[in-house]
Write a structure and sequence with these properties.
The protein has 199 residues and is α/β, with parallel strands linked by helices. It is built from seven helices and six strands. The radius of gyration is 16 Å and the shape is globular.
């Protein structure tokens, strides 16, 4: 059975706008621009017959797909797709030292590295593998998923069977869409970070 999965990043929050670290420890709301982004996405894709909406447990994902949920489409939340936890850097503006920590955790190739109090990339990948298996086993053929930036990069990397060292090659924008097809136990990315709904 072929499945079509629309995977989007949540809309903009003030933390995004101000470039403040926002992981799973920050449960922020969409700002005005984020709400507009969510509405534009809904306007573009509202006619697709989604059978289920899957989000993280953080409200910025709920708010992004609120209009689909209000149509009566069944909605489920998953802790496996919450944003990566950035430990002691959560809620703080970036500094050169924080940038070094980020490089060490995300780009060094040692994906067991973590920021104090936070998660490693491998820990994020392991919980995302649980979610991927869940996607494989779902019966719906048209699925809408709303997640977070770093999670998006790791998730798409895993879906394509790509090494995690390449996750930075997957761009993500607020409400950017990755269109994915699943058939014969294989995921295929059809569109990457599409923002045509802004046009």
């Amino acid at each position: 059975m072929k499945k079509t999965i629309h995977i989007i990043r949540h809309g903009q929050t003030d933390y995004n706008k101000l470039r403040i670290v926002q992981g799973s420890g920050i449960d922020s709301d969409l700002n005005e621009k984020g709400q507009k982004q969510a509405q534009l996405f809904f306007n573009k894709y509202k006619e697709i017959p989604f059978e289920v909406v899957l989000t993280s447990t953080l409200k910025r994902t709920h708010q992004t797909v609120k209009s689909f949920i209000e149509k009566g489409i069944p909605w489920e939340q998953f802790s496996e797709v919450v944003e990566m936890h950035w430990g002691i850097h959560e809620g703080k503006e970036g500094t050169p030292d924080m940038a070094k920590d980020y490089e060490r955790v995300v780009k060094s190739g040692n994906f067991d590295e973590r920021i104090e109090g936070g998660e490693s990339i491998n820990e994020v990948a392991n919980r995302l593998k649980i979610f991927i298996n869940h996607l494989k086993n779902r019966k719906e053929q048209n699925i809408l998923v709303c997640v977070h930036g770093r999670v998006m990069r790791v998730l798409i990397c895993l879906l394509e069977g790509n090494d995690l060292i390449n996750m930075e090659t997957y761009p993500h924008s607020n409400t950017g869409l990755y269109l994915v097809e699943y058939e014969n136990d294989e995921f295929k990315v059809i569109e990457k970070n599409s923002t045509v709904h802004f046009n």
